[in-house]
Design brief:
The structure holds three protein chains of three kinds.
Chain A (H helix, E strand, L loop, with lengths): L7 H40 L2 H4 L1 H11 L8 H33 L10 H14 L2 H12 L3 H25 L3 H9 L4 H32 L10 H10 L3 H29 L1
Helix pairs in contact in A: 4-5, 4-7, 4-9, 4-10, 4-11, 5-7, 6-7, 7-9, 8-9, 9-11, 10-11
Chain B lengths: L1 H7 L2 H6 L7 E9 L6 E10 L4 E5 L6 H8 L7 E6 L2 E2 L5 H8 L2 E4 L11 H6 L8 H6 L4 H13 L15 H14 L4 E5 L7 H18 L3 E4 L3 H7 L2 E6 L2 E7 L5 H7 L1 H4 L1
Parallel strand pairs in B: 3-8, 3-9, 6-7, 7-8
Antiparallel strand pairs in B: 1-2, 1-4, 4-5, 9-10
Chain C lengths: L20 H24 L4 H18 L5 H4 L2 H31 L11 H14 L2 H12 L3 H25 L4 H8 L4 H35 L7 H10 L3 H32 L1
The chains are: A mainly alpha, B alpha/beta, C mainly alpha.
Chain lengths: 273, 270, 279
């Protein structure tokens, strides 16, 4: 048999390699599992009041409360659903407007100043994404008061980071040749951007905006929790009045809206590309 | 008419004395891309007269593309002077430079079309230097420009493709769009940067013939980078040979000997 | 050779218009409809456009007036630092559990290697989509109402969030694999689980590790607010101070969130780069 012909040193080398890899993977997993155990200890075992959770029957009972749907809430759902949808749309559009200058600053090849404005643009992108939409909403509620406006602004601010990041990357990756052509015919700065850069980036940007709009529907559904209207507000009210069937109805409405958004964005993306 | 242009020019005069008729005068042109980088052009002198169809030949890396891009300052020269249409190109500010560029039509190796725009919009974009921002924003070009564009599209044989997107066309057709765009500028000089090297030989010949005919018709001088010596001999009345940033040959096409070619392409043999 | 054509314009100018009958009408009609819808939305939502435009100016004013200077001493307090650690632990645990649960779901919901297209595929898809569709704050509120206040609810909510987030990325990754090895494994008579282990896992291991790290990063951002709805961690401090109108403390907390998220993002970027290099 061929197997008996194998060079013994090669075999031991192979075993050595395997052992080393095994040790390395084992070490990584050991660290991860240790962390998990530590976190379990810190968060769940120490922190949880198991008596309050109330055993299996308690949990199942609490879940069961949600399963009797409150169909009477149906007529009240329409307006908040519409509001949520509109908030997501307007928020996305406003976010696009904010994204344009940020992307312009944060794209290395078109930024007006590499030393000051480029880092600023990059920082704004990170800032927008690192602050959770709930926190943005809290800030705006305190700045402009309750209503749809803080929700719109929060969604817009949260969208800026992703849209401008992708846009800036698209600008950095454009084909330089049409730009050169527009410069060669004597086009000014604006014309170079509008004819040389914009046609190249707009499919990417549009696809990103549609993607972000889809996510923004999810976000706008919770804006009401901090005072910005829409389905979130209804959810909050149902929860506070312990109407668990109503809560389930609101969640169903959210799901329906999101499925709708996903279907629309699927077809829109096809139309763009 | 082509024959006239070919016979008119004689090699000695073109380089020897400075001629007031020259459209373009380049003196001691030097380029390096970065302060420590190698010098790409090492002191080039030549002139283009108002009925020249001048070819620049040379091995790849000789600096042909750089030379042609210096003329409208797509590449910044680091030394020497360029006088184009009576103006000192190197000393112009951004605004005046744009004013100069709109008088210089340029045709590119890779066509440099805006792929997602229609053929018509690509051709009309040749008028951007004459168009204000508001009009360009709505792509509302004057009626006269649209008519002119239709005429040139017909002239280059693309009447049937006006509303197609530029990336739907074949290579030869795209280069014809590029030609029409350059002509829209009503150019006083044509710069051709390897206009045929992305095309197959048959199409190359057609495209060169088209450019030469139109240049003669509009009485526009042309400066043309070309790596195909046969094409250069066939279509151009004067040839400049570059090698490694130096000018190795400058004279009428019929004075170009095989020994000159060996000299120009010496590096390529190695 | 050249025909003489002195007049650059023919006598009968050909006609061309930018606007073509059906396409332009549809395009501009859609644009108009979208604009009208947006305008109506502003009206419907009672948004004052002047206020919207002025909001940014006011925003700067409000920030400098109410939130400056941030009460940095407050965030260096021992209790708050422990809350940061809690948040970190929650995000780690939620991310870990989420990724562990997302892998089988992603396997089920990947059309090309799913064990059964009739049974497991819909289960996997539905699981991932419903976890994704519901926002993490809503998950938090639901779990708090079932499990009571505390980090157990927070971790559960983060787990659901991570299943949705990682599950989608995982199944996209699985659907993009080279099917050659899977076919070979099927040809030698392997069952779906063996196909998954021997043909899929080796191809997606590195990508999965990267996604898992990214999931933790995103989970950390979400973890900063689950406490706001009773899930434990930094968010609880945020809620208390927002309700007590302690604006300077709120500013400090938000700054600390930003700082922590930046650190997490940097760390996850570095880890992902390391994993990619080690592949």
């Amino acid at each position: 048999m061929a197997a008996t012909d194998v060079n013994p040193t090669a075999l031991s080398l192979q075993a050595d390699l395997r052992r080393k890899r095994f040790l390395k993977m084992g070490l990584i997993w050991a660290i991860v599992l240790f962390f998990v155990a530590w976190c379990l200890q810190g968060t769940i075992i120490e922190d949880t009041d198991w008596a309050r959770v109330g055993g299996r029957s308690g949990v199942l009972g609490s879940i069961g409360r949600y399963l009797t749907l409150d169909w009477g809430l149906l007529p009240e759902l329409l307006i908040p659903t519409l509001e949520t949808f509109m908030m997501a749309c307007v928020g996305t559009v406003v976010g696009c407007f904010f994204s344009l200058p940020v992307a312009w600053l944060g794209a290395a090849n078109v930024t007006p100043s590499k030393m000051i404005l480029y880092p600023l643009g990059r920082f704004l992108m990170v800032l927008s994404r690192s602050v959770h939409e709930i926190v943005w909403a809290l800030i705006f509620v305190s700045a402009v008061g309750l209503g749809a406006l803080p929700g719109i602004l929060a969604i817009a601010m949260r969208s800026v980071g992703f849209i401008s990041k992708i846009t800036a990357e698209a600008i950095e990756n454009i084909d330089a040749k049409p730009v050169e052509a527009i410069r060669a015919v004597g086009g000014n700065q604006f014309q170079v951007m509008y004819y040389g850069i914009l046609p190249q980036i707009y499919p990417v940007v549009l696809a990103t905006v549609i993607f972000e709009w889809d996510i923004n529907i999810r976000r706008s559904a919770v804006m009401g929790l901090v005072g910005a209207g829409g389905l979130g507000l209804l959810f909050f009210r149902q929860m506070n009045s312990f109407n668990y069937g109503g809560v389930s109805m609101v969640i169903l409405a959210i799901l329906l809206l999101i499925v709708l958004g996903e279907v629309i964005s699927h077809y829109l993306r096809k139309a763009v590309i | 008419m082509a024959m006239q242009a070919l016979t008119r020019c004689n090699a000695g005069q073109a380089t020897a004395g400075r001629n007031d008729m020259a459209v373009l005068t380049v003196k001691d042109l030097r380029v390096r891309y970065s302060a420590k980088g190698p010098e790409i052009l090492k002191g080039i002198d030549f002139e283009v007269e108002d009925d020249d169809f001048l070819a620049i030949i040379g091995p790849s890396g000789a600096g042909k593309s750089t030379l042609i891009r210096c003329v409208n300052r797509l590449v910044e020269p680091s030394g020497g002077s360029i006088h184009l249409l009576g103006e000192d190109v190197c000393s112009l500010n951004a605004r005046a430079l744009r004013g100069l560029r709109r008088n210089v039509g340029m045709i590119f190796q890779e066509f440099n079309l805006i792929n997602r725009m229609s053929v018509m919009d690509n051709v009309l974009s040749g008028r951007l230097g004459y168009t204000g921002n508001i009009r360009s924003l709505f792509r509302a070009f004057p009626r006269k420009d649209v008519e002119q564009a239709l005429y040139y599209l017909d002239r280059v044989g693309l009447s049937d493709h006006i509303n197609k997107r530029a990336d739907e066309l074949s290579g030869g057709q795209r280069q014809r769009v590029g030609i029409a765009r350059a002509l829209m500028q009503a150019p006083k000089l044509l710069l051709l940067d390897e206009p045929t090297s992305a095309l197959d030989p048959k199409i190359s010949r057609e495209v060169m013939a088209l450019i030469r005919d139109i240049a003669l018709e509009l009485k526009v001088p042309a400066l043309c980078n070309i790596h195909d010596v046969q094409l250069a001999k066939e279509f151009c009345n004067r040839i400049i040979g570059l090698q490694d940033g130096y000018k190795k040959f400058d004279g009428a096409t019929d004075t170009l000997r095989d020994s000159d070619l060996d000299d120009i392409y010496a590096m390529e043999v190695l | 050779m050249t025909e003489q054509m002195p007049a650059p314009r023919p006598s009968d100018p050909p006609k061309w218009s930018r606007y073509q009958y059906p396409e332009s009408l549809i395009k501009h009609g859609t644009l108009l409809a979208v604009l009208l819808f947006l305008g109506y939305s502003l009206h419907f939502l009672n948004v004052d456009i002047g206020l919207l435009i002025g909001a940014l100016g006011r925003f700067a004013g409000v920030i400098s007036e109410r939130y400056y200077p941030p009460d940095l001493e407050y965030v260096l307090d021992r209790g708050y630092l422990e809350a940061i650690l809690d948040t970190l632990q929650m995000s780690f645990l939620g991310g870990f559990a989420g990724v562990c649960l997302a892998i089988p779901l992603a396997w089920f919901s990947a059309w090309n290697v799913t064990p059964s297209r009739r049974l497991f595929f819909p289960i996997g898809r539905l699981g991932v989509i419903s976890c994704r569709a519901i926002h993490e704050t809503i998950w938090t509120i639901l779990f708090v109402s079932v499990l009571g206040f505390g980090m157990l609810a927070g971790v559960s909510a983060l787990t659901m969030f991570c299943i949705g987030f990682a599950g989608k990325l995982f199944s996209d990754e699985i659907e993009a694999i080279d099917m050659g090895p899977a076919e070979a494994m099927r040809a030698v008579g392997a069952n779906p689980f063996q196909v998954f282990l021997f043909a899929v896992v080796p191809q997606v291991r590195v990508a999965f590790t990267g996604i898992a790290i990214y999931t933790w990063d995103v989970a950390f951002r979400a973890a900063t607010v689950v406490g706001f709805f009773g899930g434990g961690g930094m968010g609880w401090y945020l809620k208390r101070n927002v309700q007590q109108l302690e604006n300077l403390r709120v500013a400090a907390i938000i700054l600390s969130i930003i700082a922590m998220v930046l650190v997490a993002e940097f760390l996850s970027g570095w880890l992902r780069a390391t994993v990619n290099r080690a592949k």
